[in-house]
Amino acid sequence: MNEIPPVNPTAQQDLFGTTNSVLGKDDFLKILVTQLRHQDPVNPIKSEEFAAQLAQFSSVEQLNNINTNLENSNQLDLLLNQAINNTMATTLIGHSVRALGNFVSLKEDGSVYLNYNLAGQAREVTLTVRDESGDVVRTVTLSNVEGGDRVYRWDGKDDEGKRLPAGRYSFSVQATDASGNAVDAQTFVAGVIDSIRYQDGNAILLLNGGEVNLADVVEIGNLTDDPGNKVAD
Q1: Is 210 helix (H, G, I), strand (E, B) or coil?
Q2: Residue pair 118/188 in contact by the 8 Å Cβ criterion
Q3: What is the number of other CB atoms lying within 10 angstroms of the CB of residue 62?
Q4: Which residues are CB-contacts of 201 (< 8 A; sequence separation ≥ 6)?
Q5: What pTM did the predictor assign?
Q6: 144 three-state secondary structure
Q7: Would you say 68 and 75 are in contact if contact means Cβ atoms under 8 Å apart?
Q8: How far apart are CA 20 and CA 18, in angstroms?
Q9: Where are the beta strands (DSSP E) in 76-201?
Q10: CB 137 within 8 A of CB 162
């Protein structure tokens, strides 16, 4: 009886009842045992070939062990990073932050700052404020706005000058340059962290009646003071 030839991935299903397209260490061991069981007694497998196959089996096992160790290491790194981030998040309670977001919390008889950033100078900037139902309540158009971090002080009134009720509102920014081309704009939310909750191991910061991810925080500090010449109203 002749030596059984090496098994290719497409033949695994017939020999071992598996649909895997990659040979593992168990598959190599089954192949080796099958070859030994069905070898020709008058023409057995040569010792050099047997040693080479054992070396292949050992290499596959070592690679599998390395892969397992790397996966375990990556999981430990992820858990460690989450633990560090969550610990750091607790120190933010009571501190002012600026984070990616587009919501503000309007109080009775108060005004709020709409924070945004322009990638370049804009000839025209349109700020649109919406209530929690998504209805537009205020539209503001600004002219010749410098690029960089900008702030608009919204007085809490609608387009007709009526005072809007306290609550959570969202805003968006569209800008164009002198040629009519769009200027990239990014909105931000700024406020004091009230509390923190955890979801799937990640810290969620609660501020201004809304939530932001810890990863979306771009600045920490005293951000409640008047931003000075960055403000338009």
Answers
A1: strand
A2: no
A3: 11
A4: 79, 82, 86
A5: 0.61
A6: strand
A7: no
A8: 6
A9: 96-100, 103-106, 112-118, 122-130, 136-145, 148-154, 167-176, 182-183, 185-192, 195-199
A10: no
* Distance (Å, whole) CA 56 – CA 62: 10
pLDDT in tens, 42-78: 666 666 565 666 566 666 666 666 766 666 666 666 5
* Rounded Cα–Cα distance for residues 30 and 6 (Å): 11
The residue behind tokens 């008058």 is: 42
Which token pair is 36? 């030994």
What digits encode the pLDDT tens for the residues 139-180?
999 999 999 999 999 999 999 999 999 999 999 999 999 999
Q: What tokens appear for 201 in the block?
A: 């191991």
CATH class as words, domain 96-232: mainly beta
Q: Where are the domains of the chain?
A: 9-88, 96-232
Three-state DSSP class for residue 104: strand
